[in-house]
Design goal:
Layout (H helix, E strand, L loop, with lengths): L5 H17 L24 H17 L9 H5 L8 H15 L1
Helix pairs in contact: 1-2, 1-4
Length: 101
């Protein structure tokens, strides 16, 4: 398994958000920024969009030698969603990598 830095993980997430936006109508696009919301609150992303984004992030990480699942029961049952914004998701990915490593 490849060791990725927080900056590399963040860039992977932002790249995947950009790719997802290419498939969405302009009014439904995500803000792509290091502090952007992803799911809930001010985000236009629905649950299907979230699953699509998580699968793309998993694939992008796998291409870099890092195999993890971002949509497991543990993630779904957390009191505070790990998907709410970019920093929270990056932290969640970092925790998963440490736990698997």
């Amino acid at each position: 398994m490849s060791v990725l830095t927080g900056t590399e993980i963040e860039q992977t997430v932002l790249d995947c958000m950009t790719r997802l936006n290419e498939l969405r109508e302009p009014q439904d696009r995500l803000a792509v920024a290091p502090d952007a919301p992803i799911f809930g609150g001010d985000s236009p992303l629905d649950s299907l969009g979230l699953v699509t984004l998580m699968m793309d992030i998993e694939d992008a990480l796998a291409e870099r030698g890092t195999e993890i699942s971002l949509s497991d029961a543990q993630a779904m049952s957390q009191r505070r969603s790990p998907y709410r914004d970019v920093p929270t998701l990056v932290g969640f990915i970092e925790e998963k990598l440490v736990a698997s490593g």
